[in-house]
Design brief:
The protein is mainly α. The chain has 10 helices and no strands.
């Protein structure tokens, strides 16, 4: 089980991510979208969407720093272990609360707005469950081991994560990791595998073409500038 969870599952999740992105781009290019429901309701969405996106962005940045920035680097710039622990604890918790608040607002919006709820697919519901579960478990794991200097995952989880990129996963590092952190990691890997098959796929889209596309010229439709409109044909008048 140790070899499967920490030596096989990460690569399986990554393979499903890449295969799903390729398949989605090739056979479902028009479905590569957030499937925005703003046309049905925008007032609450204008609050919930920024809250969620800023929260999840901070969560992702925190994970990247925590997993892929070695302790020696933070020591070199003068960040002590205690300072790093406090930043991780309070900063990570704040980011998680922000992301969870955004998700709950989005779920509330979908449940209380009939047109939005009808546009919600089974994939959307599953995505919310795994995304919310991963964030909440991460916060619970952090808060459950917050006493003193907390659990130092930079000596276990972080080296294991980096070892995956060398194709020599150090699975033994995950054996003594607290269960909450282990469950959080497993749900995170499952979420990564599900990304191409949900609306989360839009995170891999960037409007790069906007940097080089021609300017869009908007013209006035003032009748005084466009001139008189030609008369309609007989069948157009009848159908109007």
């Amino acid at each position: 089980m140790t070899v499967f969870l920490w030596g096989v599952l990460p690569y399986a999740a990554f393979a499903l991510l890449i295969a799903g992105l390729v398949w989605r781009h090739r056979y479902d290019r028009f479905g590569w979208t957030t499937r925005s429901s703003q046309v049905y309701e925008s007032k609450l969405l204008n609050i919930a969407s920024p809250v969620f996106h800023y929260g999840i962005l901070f969560v992702l940045v925190g994970h990247l720093v925590g997993l892929f920035v070695p302790e020696s680097w933070t020591d070199a710039v003068g960040v002590s272990e205690h300072a790093y622990h406090l930043l991780s604890l309070y900063g990570g918790t704040a980011a998680g609360v922000l992301a969870v608040a955004g998700i709950l607002l989005l779920i509330y919006r979908r449940r209380t707005n009939a047109p939005v709820f009808r546009a919600t697919t089974a994939n959307d519901k599953g995505m919310y469950v795994f995304l919310l579960g991963a964030i909440v478990l991460g916060m619970v794991a952090k808060l459950a081991h917050s006493s003193g200097t907390g659990y130092d995952y930079r000596h276990t989880i972080a080296p294991w994560s980096r070892s995956l990129f060398t194709l020599r996963p150090e699975t033994e590092l995950m054996v003594g990791v607290p269960v909450l952190y282990q469950v959080h990691a497993v749900i995170g890997m499952v979420l990564i595998a599900l990304v191409p098959y949900t609306r989360l796929v839009h995170m891999f889209s960037a409007p790069v073409q906007y940097l080089v596309r021609p300017y869009v010229v908007y013209r006035s439709r003032d009748p005084r500038q466009l001139g008189p409109r030609p008369d309609r044909r007989g069948w157009e008048r009848a159908g109007s």
